[in-house]
Amino acid sequence: MTKLRVAILVSGRGSNMAALIDAALDPDYPVEIVAVVSNRPGAGALAIASQAGVATAVVDHRSFPNREAFDSELDRTIRSFEPDVVCLAGFMRLLTAGFIESWAGRLINVHPALLPSFKGLDTHARALAAGVKLHGCTVHLVTLDVDSGPIIAQAAVPVLTDDDEATLAARVLKAEHELFPRALALWATGRARLDGDRVLIKDENAPGEALVWP
């Protein structure tokens, strides 16, 4: 089986990265993690990746005069590992238009909300303030409009009466760890494919009834 070669961009602890690496340990998983690249030399994700035997690299954004220079070096570093796809797993940098366009259709992000609701930051606080009963996460393709790219997959979690930001964030993060590997596998096998501005899923087997909470 020819596997999709994936590089992962990280900035912090790397829990979503770890979920992808763990999934790739299965010989039947259609993805090979070829590199982890961070913009922060002290990111905890780097140690996790190294321990798992995954190549790592650092492109420290503080060493560059502007975003364009940083993204140029980031692009060069990523391409040295020859990935097919780049996944953003807690990568806390806004990418330039040139970078995004150069990886169009091959740049995948996980966002902690059910897009198109709650784009941007502070998603859990905003969900609580809005009083929604379902929250969740989205895996989507990255486009020039932030958090607006075609959606590959989503997972919903209940919002409980006694939730605060921390408890809701923990529930959503657990869902992210399950969703991201599944969505990436759909993309790698071609079951998820881009059709214009949306992603179509082949052989869907969805329940015929509404998902209701509470």
From TrEMBL:
Supply the enzyme class, top level: transferase
Read off the Gene3D superfamilies from this record: Formyl transferase, N-terminal domain
> Which InterPro entries does the UniProt entry name for this protein?
Formyl_transf_N, Formyl_transf_N_sf, GART
Q: Which residues form the active site?
A: 111
Q: Its Gene Ontology biological processes?
A: 'de novo' IMP biosynthetic process
Q: Which residues bind N(1)-(5-phospho-beta-D-ribosyl)glycinamide?
A: 14-16
Q: What is its EC number?
A: 2.1.2.2
Q: Which reaction does it catalyse?
A: N(1)-(5-phospho-beta-D-ribosyl)glycinamide + (6R)-10-formyltetrahydrofolate = N(2)-formyl-N(1)-(5-phospho-beta-D-ribosyl)glycinamide + (6S)-5,6,7,8-tetrahydrofolate + H(+)
One GO term describing the cellular component = cytosol
Task: List the molecular function annotations (GO) for this entry.
Answer: phosphoribosylglycinamide formyltransferase activity
Write out the residues that bind (6R)-10-formyltetrahydrofolate: 67, 92-95, 109
The segment(s) forming the Formyl transferase N-terminal domain are 5-184
Pathway(s) it belongs to: Purine metabolism; IMP biosynthesis via de novo pathway; N(2)-formyl-N(1)-(5-phospho-D-ribosyl)glycinamide from N(1)-(5-phospho-D-ribosyl)glycinamide (10-formyl THF route): step 1/1
The answer, when asked if Transferase is one of the entry's keywords, is yes
Asked whether the UniProt record includes Transferase among its keywords, one would answer yes
Site entry: Raises pKa of active site His: 147
Q: Which UniProt keywords apply?
A: Purine biosynthesis, Transferase
Protein family (similarity comment)? Belongs to the GART family.
Q: What does this protein do?
A: Catalyzes the transfer of a formyl group from 10-formyltetrahydrofolate to 5-phospho-ribosyl-glycinamide (GAR), producing 5-phospho-ribosyl-N-formylglycinamide (FGAR) and tetrahydrofolate.
HAMAP family in the cross-refs = PurN (MF_01930)
UniProt name for this protein: Phosphoribosylglycinamide formyltransferase
- The organism is Hansschlegelia plantiphila
